[in-house]
Amino acid sequence: MPLKRIALVALLLLGLSATQAQVRHEINFPDLPGYRTLKCDLHMHTVFSDGYVWPTVRVDEAWREGLDVIAITDHIEYQPYKNDIPTKHGRANEIAAGRARERDLLSVLGAEITRATPPGHYNAIFLSDVNPLDTEDFYEVVRQAAEQDAFVFWNHPGWKGPELGRWGEYQETLFERGQLHGIEICNGESYYAEAHQEALKRNLTLIGNSDIHDPALDHARTPANHRTVTLVFAKEKTLAALREALFARRTAVWSQNRLFGRQEHLAAMFQACVEVQPPHHRSGDKLWLAIKNHCELDIELQAIGDTKPATINLPAHSTSLLRLDASVLGKREGLPYRALNFLVGPDEALPVTLEIPSP
Prior knowledge:
The protein folds into 2 domains: 25-261, Metal-dependent hydrolases (TIM Barrel); 268-354, Immunoglobulin-like (Sandwich). The chain is built from 8 helices and 19 strands. The chain has helices at 3-21, 55-64, 91-102, 138-147, 169-176, 193-201, 239-247, 263-273, and strands spanning 36-44, 69-72, 106-114, 121-125, 151-154, 182-187, 190-191, 205-209, 229-234, 251-255, 258-261, 274-276, 281-283, 286-293, 299-303, 311-314, 318-325, 335-345, 348-354. The chain has a 15-stranded mixed β-sheet that branches. Strands 12, 13, 14 and 17 form a 4-stranded antiparallel β-sheet that branches. The longest helix has 19 residues, at 3-21. The relative contact order is 0.11.
């Protein structure tokens, strides 16, 4: 076979191999009634600030990991590679946009406002132009984002320690001006309980992201080892619907086998995730039934009062067999539990009811 032909075949095989390697692993959290559950990472970095990958790599990683929405939010002020990659705000998003369309991902134009802590770091997304935010005065930067109707959230509040990460003058000023809309209560593997409490107190949107800088390792996902994401309950998969849902605070945060959110959203999610089957066998005063878990969490239930069994563990994507006293069939109110990893506040588990269908 001529060398040119061998080279051509080799290139085709390499291209085929690369195509076959693109496998998507869906993140399974059900849609809620009236809403579509979008899996979002709204805090990511590339070589255009202090990340280590090209923008299209971020897109491919996100698609493989089951995301629906991404925001590349490179630092405006901090660009350690500017001798090699000239400053051009928003360029990473321009490069990523075409690849995102190919992968059916929504890509949101964003940037990270970077200051010493306090005031700390903030992401502004749904921008139309990053350049007006490249200014020295902190309040002017956020004002410029507000002029573009951006959604602004406070990043990793406690990353410099709880004392520096407390709600203070800067946050209060932005809040009073209507220029602060959310708080990143989870960043990577970190959870900020005080920030979570502040978000609930001030009715701000709950956000959780990866803040990824390194290349994403292609390892098997587990309930406890996964990319931290924001679940956004949007009316449809569009940028307009995503924006509306974020401003309406319809979110939950999935991080390290925990789901953080407001009670109305977590209660609806629990109902969508947990399916109690009718009893399929009865022997004396005992009956057997199956419970299906349709989501990514290993769900941990703890009984309220003298409910039996005292604990129930429902592994992710599985069916669990349960033996109960037959007397539960007469209980219209169902069996009361707390879902320990559905958190409606710091250390506050969601109360749930397991309703037993008639055989």
